[in-house]
Amino acid sequence: MRILIVEDNHEVARQLKNTLEDELFVVDTASDGEEGWFMADTETYDAIILDLGLPKLDGLSVLQRWRQSG
């Protein structure tokens, strides 16, 4: 299972990534909304952990873009 974590707090992202990788998930991370939107728009993920308070593009706007693009 491939998971994307979109989180601007590097420590939180690191802890989530390490925990999920320990359970044998494949994990990518993005540190702002624009990067997260681009990654999920160009790659396939089974699940996304999305922070709402992100720099550059907030989490709700990212979610709206994903929904609009299908």
Description:
- The structure is a single chain.
- With 70 residues, the chain is α/β, with parallel strands linked by helices.
- It has 3 helices and 3 strands, in the order βαβαβα.
- A 3-stranded parallel sheet has the order 2-1-3.
- β1, α1 and β2 form a beta-alpha-beta unit.
- α2 packs parallel to α3.
- The protein is globular, with a radius of gyration of 11 Å.
- The two termini are 21 Å apart.
- The mean pLDDT is 96.
Secondary-structure topology with pairs:
Layout: E1 2-6, H1 10-22, E2 26-30, H2 33-42, E3 47-50, H3 59-69
Parallel strand pairs: 1-2, 1-3
Helix pairs in contact: 2-3
What is the SS-derived class? Answer: alpha/beta
**Rg over alpha carbons:** 11 Å
Average pLDDT confidence is 96
Proportion of residues in β-strands:
15-25%
Unreliable runs, pLDDT <50, ≥5 residues?
A: none
Q: How many β strands by DSSP? A: 3
- Order of strands side by side in the largest beta sheet? 2-1-3
Helix content: 40-55%
Instruction: Summarize the biggest pleated sheet.
Output: 3 strands, parallel
Number of helices: 3
Shape: globular
Following the backbone from N to C, one meets helices and strands in this order, namely: EHEHEH
End-to-end CA span: 21 Å
